[in-house]
Amino acid sequence: MWAVRGLLPFGAITIFAGTAATAAGPHSGGVSGDRVHRLTFKGVDTLNWVVHRHATIAALFGVTVIAVWLLYRRGGLTGRSSR
């Protein structure tokens, strides 16, 4: 249970990075003709930089989820809360 709870902040960071990638890109909201303010903290390379960080974070999150699952299956994690 604690291992899964420990994954929650990591998942939240992954979602935040994906949101930032969307905000930096061409599909960040608005309708045709609206002026949309995109993230530009790295200049013209912001979109590329944020997408690569999101991909790295998401890959690490995925590997961590699989590691927790494998530990649980092998008996390394009991699956019971210790009250």
Average pLDDT score: 85
Query: How many helices?
Result: 2
Strand content: under 5%
Give the proportion of residues in helices.
Answer: 55-70%
Rounded to the nearest angstrom, the radius of gyration is 18 Å
What's the total number of strands? 0
Order of helices and strands: HH
Q: N-to-C terminal Cα separation, in Å? A: 12 Å
Give the low-pLDDT segments.
none
How would you describe the overall organization of this protein?
With 83 residues, the protein is mainly α. It has helices spanning 2-24, 46-74. Helix 1 packs antiparallel against helix 2 (46-74).
Name the features.
83 residues, 63% helix, elongated
Give the helix/strand layout:
Elements: H1 2-24, H2 46-74
Helix pairs in contact: 1-2
Could you provide a short overview of the structure?
The chain is an all-alpha fold and 83 residues long.
